[in-house]
Design goal:
Oligomer: single chain
Number of helices: 13
Structural class: alpha+beta
Distance between the termini: 204 Å
Number of strands: 15
Largest sheet: 15 strands, mixed
Order of helices and strands: HEEEHEEHHHHHHHHEEHEEEEEEHEEH
Length: 593
């Protein structure tokens, strides 16, 4: 027997494997903890920490304590944190590369909590995010709005007060118009000339021509008189037209001058009015971070679990590449968690989330991963339910959908925005929400709505515009948020539209106008005083022009009357003379016969 068995070699062999088994037994837990943190860090894109790993060999089970997943977008926070994660798995299957977990339990889950120290983010993840381009944070968007309401002096300077310019222009033009009219007054026939026309007409009225020669002489005199009066009448008309033009111009200038102070104040009011575009991001700025947190909670399956599964599906086992042996004749998946129950706490509410068939090889099991949110009774809402599913096919194409409905949820007091010059708080609000999202080719579409009522908003800050913004926000107690979701899984983008912007624009305009009204009234009074002083000089000039216009109208009327009367007298005189001559001729003929 001894010559067939080398006891020294056998003992060495047994001792080697005993030592190997002992090493595995002693160091398996640290090695598995290292392997899990390394692998999860790779798929998470940022540091993953496991405080402690407990290993049980029969049945083979793992229990992880204080698991932390760093948020790669905000390394100061954990995107996911669990007090305990426990599961049993089939060891022999794991040894050939297949992970089968019948049931996984996770307790004490929270999201978005602060880390003790900043987590490390993988360099390739940073490069990927930089390639996608950065978008401004909600706080940066508020800073871009530039809420700086200038004081009244700045407003007057920016609004280009035009009253002084109108005063100067009107004064100059009225003076020039008056001087021009006065200068052309010589065109008017004076009263002596009008009297001479009257005398010449009287002479013609009294004349009784007794011969054709006398009649022709009178007619010639009348024609000359008519030409003289017509010339003067045309000159008067020309003067009257120029006076009317000057009067109309000065009158319009005076009216513009009277309106100038009000026009300037209206211009200032329009300048300080807030238009819709000026605050088009306020809904997102105030509620974007809150909606982002809601999204993180609502899309935990899509925004956290599914991306890790998809990355695992996309990664190839380089060590076995080209010579991978599939021992699974039934075409079973490489990774499968048949059932997982996770519990988390949000505020004072416990949420339970049930998962079925977690894998990335859904075609092999013929069904998607499904999940359903179960809630404890809560005084904070009337009803809340959510469920969804996702499916990854062999081509690593991701699809799924999720829907939710929330009724009568009471939002607790919270700070919506806090910056150096301002803090905006919401004391309370009631919310109803419903939504439906879909995923095709690994990208989100769809969204939901949130109707907020009984909203109580307030601001704190030392700047005057902070108080104005607070007054405007206090006027708003109900609005809606239309939330759109787009982008790839793992980094979805929010789009928030709301009637809050329009309401705030209207309220803020009213508040700012009220704030400026008393000071603008003083400005208007000052401008009106300048206008009244200028009108004291301009009004007499306008009256002078008006007097000249009246005089021109009187002279034109007098001359036109003379011209009209002259034509009638000429006709009557000619007819009388012809009749008399005809009678004389007839008598002479008859008498002579």
């Amino acid at each position: 027997m001894n010559k067939y068995i080398r006891w020294q070699g056998l003992l060495t062999f047994v001792g080697f494997f005993a030592v190997l088994f002992l090493l595995v037994y002693l160091f398996a837990a640290p090695l598995m903890r290292w392997g899990l943190t390394t692998g999860l860090t790779r798929v998470n894109g940022a540091e993953v920490n496991i405080d402690k790993l407990d290993l049980r060999w029969s049945p083979f089970a793992l229990e992880l304590q204080k698991v932390q997943f760093t948020d790669p977008e905000t390394p100061e926070l954990n995107r996911f944190q669990a007090d305990r994660v426990a599961f049993e798995m089939q060891l022999l299957q794991a040894m050939i590369g297949r992970i089968y977990i019948d049931e996984l339990n996770a307790d004490g889950i929270v999201m978005g909590v602060e880390r003790e120290s900043r987590g490390k983010v993988r360099a390739d993840y940073i490069a990927e995010r930089e390639a996608e381009g950065d978008t401004p944070t909600w706080g940066e968007r508020f800073a871009e709005l530039g809420f700086e309401f200038p004081d009244v002096d700045e407003l007057l300077e920016r609004s280009e007060i035009r009253t002084p310019e109108v005063i100067e222009t009107t004064s100059t033009r009225s003076r020039e118009s008056r001087d021009n009219v006065e200068g052309s007054r010589d065109q008017l026939p004076d009263s002596e000339r009008i009297e001479s026309y009257e005398e010449r007409l009287d002479a013609l009225r009294e004349a009784r021509p007794r011969s054709i020669e006398e009649f022709e002489e009178l007619r010639q005199t009348l024609s000359e008189l008519r030409d003289d009066m017509r010339t003067d009448r045309d000159a008067v008309r020309e003067f009257k037209n120029s006076v009317e033009s000057a009067y109309q111009q000065v009158s319009e200038d005076v009216q513009r001058l009277r309106d100038a102070p009000s026009a300037d104040i209206d211009r200032v009011r329009r300048l300080i009015a807030m238009d819709d575009e000026a605050i088009s991001d306020m809904a997102g700025i105030l509620f974007g971070p809150q909606v982002q947190r809601w999204t993180d909670y609502a899309l935990v399956a899509y925004d956290f679990v599914a991306p890790m599964l998809q990355r695992e599906a996309e990664d190839k086992p380089t060590r076995w590449e080209g010579r991978h042996i599939d021992f699974d004749r039934g075409n079973r998946p490489v990774f499968l968690i048949a059932l997982a129950t996770t519990s988390m706490r949000i505020g004072e509410v416990d949420l339970a989330l049930r998962w079925d068939n977690i894998t990335w090889q859904h075609e092999r099991i013929g069904s998607p991963t499904t999940y359903r949110l179960e809630l404890s009774e809560s005084p904070y809402w009337q009803s809340l339910n959510a469920d969804g599913n996702f499916f990854i096919n062999e081509a690593i194409e991701f699809s799924g959908q999720q829907q939710w409905a929330l009724q009568g949820a009471q939002l607790s007091a919270q700070t919506l925005l806090e910056q150096r010059d301002i803090r905006i708080d919401m004391a309370e609000a009631m919310i109803n929400s419903r939504g439906d999202i879909r995923i095709e080719n690994g990208r989100f579409s769809g969204g939901g709505n949130a109707d907020l009522s009984a909203v109580d908003l307030s601001t704190e800050g030392e700047r005057s515009w902070t108080a104005m913004l607070g007054s405007a926000l206090q006027q708003i107690n109900a609005f809606d948020l239309d939330i759109g979701l787009e982008g790839r899984i793992g980094s979805p983008r929010l789009r928030i539209d709301s009637d809050l912007d329009n309401q705030l624009s209207s309220a803020l305009s009213g508040v700012v106008q009220e704030y400026a009204s008393s000071q603008l009234a003083d400005v208007q009074a000052r401008l009106q005083g300048q206008v009244d002083e200028a009108l004291g000089d301009i009004q007499p000039r306008l009256e002078q022009i008006q007097q000249l216009r009246s005089l021109a109208e009187e002279r034109e009327s007098t001359l036109q009357g003379m011209l009209d009367e002259e034509l009638d007298n000429l006709r009557d005189s000619a007819r009388d003379e012809l009749e008399n001559r005809l009678r004389d001729v007839i008598r002479g003929r008859l008498g002579g016969g």
